[in-house]
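Data card: per-record layout.
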Amino acid sequence: MRLVSGLTPAVFLIGFSLTVLPACGFAQETGINRNMVAAAEMPDAPQPQFSVAAAEPYPQATASQTQNTTTSSQTSPPQGSSSSQTVEPPAAAETQKQKADEQIKEQEKQRVLGIVPSFNISYRPDAVSLSGKQKISLAFHSATDPVAFAVALVAAGYHEVGDDDIGFGWGAEGYGKRAGAAYLDAFDGAMIGNGILPAIFHQDPRYFRRGHGSFGSRVLFALATNVVCKHDNTGKWEPNYSNVGGNIISGAISNLYYPSDGSGISQTFSNGMLVTAEGGFGSLFQEFWPDVSRKLFHKDPTRGLDAQYQAEHAADKKAKDDAKAKAKQDQK
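The structure for this 332-residue chain is written out next.
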């Protein structure tokens, strides 16, 4: 939190360029849009109750029956009406929530080398959107994993050896203060940038691994996702206010417990931008880790999802190429 930013302009330029591309160049968008359309499908509207009453062979209807029938016909929308098409049934929302819960359980089993958690990574480009409660719960699970505490202890030792933050002092007391500060940095960043702000802005905090394409395109994609992300409702890519804002806010909070070093608002923003840029290295690792794992350890962290989506991508590409070839043949 106390370094000078040098990578931010490049990363923001990359993110801005990819944001304005017509299709964003990301294969996941197609998958998420298909999933959103499927989630929006609705069951057939039930038959209006008054039609059954009208068909019953009563010779005469009383005044009260006539009034009830008229009221029913006025309040019950006919099949195919606009109101029956626009109201989402509770069952559809419940189904999406259950599917999101299942996918979260998959993510919470993901660990690099079986140790380091990768809970905020999705190997499904068509993953359903998370509710605000699910985002905060996932962020809290990541922030309170035992590995998070171990990383804080290692970081504290590194900073003490490097004579960083001398205001904490030295020895066991200084080491404890550095460890606590390092853990609070990680906890605040995770909860604010991956939980609270994504719930407010309706942005998906997860990294959606691309897993196909050229090496360069995957590198650009990984770096850009620190400054662009998917919107929950539209599935389109937009500026990642949650990640950037979370880094700045957590940096401002850290000023409360770090020894005063004369840093002000400008330093807080600079530190926040630096942390955002540094996040690109984490995204690069998550993008290529499954490839490394399969090659070196013969284990597939994606559990076959990579092969499935790569086959679909190849099939789509072949279909487009065949269509172009047929169009050229027809022109001759």
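Known properties of this structure: DSSP finds 13 helices and six strands in the chain. The beta strands are 111-112, 116-117, 121-122, 207-208, 228-230, 237-239.

See the next section for split statistics.
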